[in-house]
Design brief:
This protein is of the alpha+beta class and about 700 residues long. About 15% of the residues lie in helices and about 30% in strands.
Length: about 700
C-alpha cells in the first residue's frame, strides 16, 4: 500500500487464539448445480514452498509492533518473514535516529525492538533501505549494525519502496529527494546502494523495486526516457541485485471481481521472469522475485480478504515467488460497509487496531482481534509447509479454485476455495500420480464469519461439500508408502528453441532401489499432463511443438522396476515463429498508457508470388486483452482470435517485398503478453 498510518488504538486488548472452533454450521448450506470436478496431478511439479513464504508487513507507526501478543499471533499463523519499517515509510525512515520526518513514529518500534519481535515469531526480516531520503552510506551502516555489531543475520534488503511513485510518471506518493527521479537515476542508485551494503556484508541479498506486470506504470515510457521502469532498472542494475521486489493491489469494484484476480498470477510472474531474462545481464536465473505487498480490493477484513489471501499466496508461491507479504499487521478503521453479511471496517490490517470512526458511531473489535485474512494465513500454514512441493491442481468451475502440495513424508494436501458467497459446492476430486488412503482425511475449514479454523477427520479424499465462501484443506495419507523410487531429476534448462523444437537438458536423478531406466518429459496442460517424449540420457530434443506456444515441462525418472520418481522443478519456455517464411509481421506496442496502447502491424510478403487480398489472424495470449478498433484493414475479434482483412485499396502485396502497414488500439486489464505469432492467409509468418 502507499503510506498508511495507524489510528489511535484502544487501551485494552482481548486476544484470541489462532485456532478456535466457531462459525456457521456448514451442513445448513445448499449445494449448487452439478459436482465440480477437481483434478490434482502429483506428477506436475511446481515450486517448492520456501521457508520465507508466509510474510507480513509491520510498521514503525504501529505501537503494537514489538509486543509479545502480536509476535505470538503471527507465530501461530505461520509467519516466516516480516518487512520493516512499513511501506512508503521506508523512504523517509532514518534508522540511526529512529525518525521519519513527515510521518509518525510510535514508541517502542526501533530496529532492535523489531528484531526481537521477529525472533520471537521465528521469522526472518526483510528491510527497506531508505532510497528516497537516505544514502548508500546510511544503508551500509545499517547492514553493519545489523549483521556485524548485533549479528542478527539479516539477509534480505530492498532498495526503497514504490519508487516509481515519485512523480516521474505523474503520480507522487513516494518520497524522493533526488533531483533526477527517472528509472535511470533509481537504477544507478541501486548500484551504489548494493555496492556499499555488500562491501560490509557480501552475504546479504539486495533487491530492486520493479512494477508488477499488468499494473501501473508497467509498459509506460515517460517523456525523455528510452525505456520502461523495469527494463531500465534490470539493464543497469541487474548484475548487482539478487531479487526484484513487486507489489500487487489488483483492485476490483466488487468482491467477485477482486476474487477473480488471482487468475492473472501465472501470466504476471511469467512476464516478470521474461523481463528479467531479457534485460538483466548474464546469469539472470539467479534473480528471485519477492511480492512484499498485496491486499484485496473489496472486503479486506471479511471473508473476501481470507479467500483472496489463500488463493493469491498459493498462486504466487507455486509460481516460485520466494515470499508473499500481506499489507499489514495493523492499519486502522476506514470506510465501514457490510460484506457477505459481516461488518467490514475498511481496515487493511491482519489484526484489529481497536479504533473507532471519528464520530464514534462504529468501533472495531478489541485490539488484536484477528480479522478474516488472519485465518486465511493460518489456513496457508495448515496447507503448505516449508519444503512441500506444490503440484498442479485445477477445477472446471471458476468459483472454485484448487491448489495442492506434496509433502516430503508422502502426504498430499489440497486447498479448495469456494468463492460463491451464497451456495455450497460439492466437488469430486480425481488424482494423478497419487493414490490416497481409504481412511478419512484430516480436514481444516474456515467459513464466513468464523473465528478460527475447525479441524476434524471426516469424509473421503474424493468427495467433499464446500460451505459457501469458505476455505477447506484436506490432508491425505498415501494408500501405501512407496519406497525405493528414483529421486527427482535436476532443474531442466532449455536451448535451441525454434518454432517447432526445443532441446531440454537436466542433471541425472539419484537411483533408488533399482537403476534409472529412462527419463520421461511431461507437459503440463492445466492439471493434466501429456508425455512429450522419453530418453535414456539427460538431454532430449522435443519436436512437433506449436509456434508461439508456452510450455511448462517436468522431467521424471523411471527405474528398471517401473517405479516413477517425483517430478523435476518445472521449466517454462515459449516457442517462437518460423525463422523463414513467405511472410513477415512486425508487431509493436506503441505509446502504452498502462491499460492500453497503439498496436502497429507491418506485413511483408516475402514469397515468390503476389498476394491479391489478405487476411491476418492472431490469438491473444490471455483473456484480458482486446482489440478496440483499428485502421487500414477491417478488424474483428471473436473470443481471443483477432482477424484483419485487407481493404480494396491495400489488398495487393507484390512478390518478394510487397508490404502494408495497419494498426489498432489495444486494451488490457491484466498482464499484457504480446501475441507471438501471426498467420497470413493461413501461413505462419516470421515475426520480426
Amino acid at each position: 500500500m502507499r503510506t498508511h498510518r495507524l489510528r489511535a488504538a484502544t487501551a485494552s486488548a482481548a486476544l484470541l487464539g489462532a485456532l478456535v472452533l466457531a462459525g456457521p454450521d456448514p451442513s445448513a448450506a445448499s449445494t449448487a448445480g452439478a459436482p465440480v470436478q477437481v483434478t490434482v496431478n502429483a506428477n506436475a511439479g511446481l515450486a517448492t514452498m520456501p521457508d520465507t513464504g508466509l510474510g507480513i508487513n509491520d510498521a514503525i507507526w504501529d505501537k503494537e509492533l514489538g509486543t509479545t501478543a502480536v509476535s505470538d499471533l503471527l507465530k501461530n499463523a505461520g509467519v516466516r518473514m516480516v518487512r520493516y519499517p512499513g511501506g512508503s515509510y521506508g523512504d523517509i525512515y532514518h534508522w540511526k535516529t529512529h525518525t521519519a520526518p513527515g510521518g509518525y513514529v510510535a514508541p517502542g518500534t526501533d530496529f532492535d525492538t523489531f528484531m526481537a519481535a521477529v525472533q520471537r515469531t521465528g521469522a526472518q526480516p526483510m528491510i527497506i533501505a531508505n532510497y528516497g531520503t537516505g544514502t548508500p552510506e546510511e544503508a551500509a551502516d545499517w547492514v553493519r549494525y545489523a549483521n556485524v555489531t548485533k549479528k542478527y543475520g539479516a539477509t534480505y534488503w530492498t532498495v526503497g519502496n514504490e519508487n516509481y511513485g515519485n512523480g516521474h510518471y505523474g503520480s507522487e506518493w513516494e518520497a524522493d529527494n533526488h533531483p533526477d527521479k527517472s528509472p535511470q537515476a533509481y537504477a544507478d542508485g541501486v548500484v551504489a546502494f548494493a555496492d556499499a551494503m555488500k562491501a560490509v556484508d557480501p552475504t546479504i541479498k539486495v533487491g530492486a523495486v520493479l512494477t508488477m506486470p499488468g499494473n501501473w506504470p508497467d509498459g509506460i515510457v515517460a517523456g525523455g526516457d528510452p525505456a520502461t521502469w523495469n527494463r531500465t532498472v534490470l539493464t543497469v542494475a541487474g548484475s548487482k541485485i539478487d531479487f526484484v521486489d513487486l507489489h500487487w493491489y489488483p483492485g476490483g469494484s466488487t468482491a467477485a471481481e477482486s476474487l477473480a484476480k488471482p487468475e492473472q498470477i501465472t501470466d504476471a510472474v511469467y512476464l516478470a521472469r521474461e523481463q528479467i531474462a531479457r534485460y538483466a545481464p548474464a546469469d539472470a536465473g539467479r534473480i528471485g522475485i519477492s511480492l512484499t505487498e498485496t491486499n484485496v480490493g473489496v472486503g479486506p477484513d471479511t471473508q473476501p480478504g481470507a479467500l483472496f489471501l489463500a488463493d493469491a499466496y498459493s498462486g504466487l508461491l507455486e509460481s516460485g515467488v520466494f515470499t508473499v507479504q500481506w499489507w499489514n499487521v495493523h492499519n486502522g478503521i476506514g470506510t465501514v460497509s457490510t460484506v457477505a453479511g459481516r461488518t467490514d471496517y475498511g481496515d487493511f490490517g491482519l489484526l484489529s487496531s481497536g479504533t473507532c470512526l471519528a464520530d464514534g458511531t462504529t468501533c472495531e473489535p478489541p485490539l488484536n482481534t484477528p480479522f478474516a485474512p488472519y485465518h486465511g494465513l493460518a489456513m496457508m500454514n495448515a496447507f503448505a509447509r516449508p519444503g512441500d512441493r506444490f503440484v498442479r491442481a485445477g477445477t472446471d468451475d471458476p468459483l472454485v479454485t484448487a491448489h495442492a502440495v506434496r509433502r516430503p513424508d508422502g502426504d498430499l494436501a489440497v486447498l479448495l476455495v469456494n468463492k460463491d458467497p451464497d451456495a455450497a459446492r460439492t466437488v469430486g476430486i480425481a488424482y494423478t500420480g497419487y493414490t490416497p488412503a481409504a481412511a478419512a482425511p484430516t480436514v481444516h475449514t474456515y467459513v464466513n464469519g468464523g473465528t478460527g479454523l475447525t479441524t476434524a477427520q471426516s469424509g473421503t479424499a474424493t468427495s467433499r461439500t464446500l460451505p459457501p465462501y469458505s476455505l477447506t484443506t484436506l490432508v491425505l495419507h498415501p494408500a501405501s508408502q512407496v519406497t525405493g523410487t528414483p529421486g527427482a531429476p535436476g532443474s531442466p534448462t532449455v536451448s535451441a528453441v525454434t518454432d517447432r523444437t526445443a532441446t531440454l537438458t537436466w542433471t541425472a536423478a539419484a537411483a533408488g532401489g533399482h537403476p534409472v531406466a529412462k527419463y520421461e518429459l511431461h507437459r503440463q496442460n492445466g492439471a493434466t499432463d501429456e508425455q512429450l517424449g522419453e530418453t535414456t540420457g539427460t538431454s532430449f530434443t522435443v519436436a512437433n511443438l506449436i509456434p508461439g506456444t508456452r510450455y511448462t515441462v517436468n522431467v521424471l525418472a523411471r527405474d528398471t522396476a517401473g517405479k516413477l520418481g517425483p517430478p523435476s522443478p518445472p521449466l517454462t519456455f515459449t516457442t517462437g515463429s518460423p525463422a523463414t517464411s513467405t511472410c513477415t509481421v512486425r508487431f509493436t506496442d506503441n505509446n502504452d498508457w498502462g491499460n492500453g496502447y497503439v498496436a502497429g502491424v507491418d506485413i511483408t510478403n516475402d514469397g515468390p508470388d503476389a498476394i491479391d487480398g489478405w487476411t491476418l489472424t492472431f490469438d491473444w495470449p490471455t483473456a484480458w486483452q482486446r482489440m478496440n478498433g483499428g485502421w487500414n484493414a477491417t478488424w474483428d475479434q471473436n473470443g481471443r482470435t483477432v482477424k484483419a482483412t485487407s481493404l480494396d485499396s491495400n489488398g495487393r502485396l507484390a512478390a518478394r517485398g510487397g508490404s502494408v502497414s495497419a494498426g489498432f488500439v489495444a486494451g488490457y486489464t491484466g498482464p499484457n503478453i504480446l501475441p507471438p505469432v501471426f498467420t497470413l492467409n493461413g501461413t505462419v509468418c516470421h515475426t520480426s
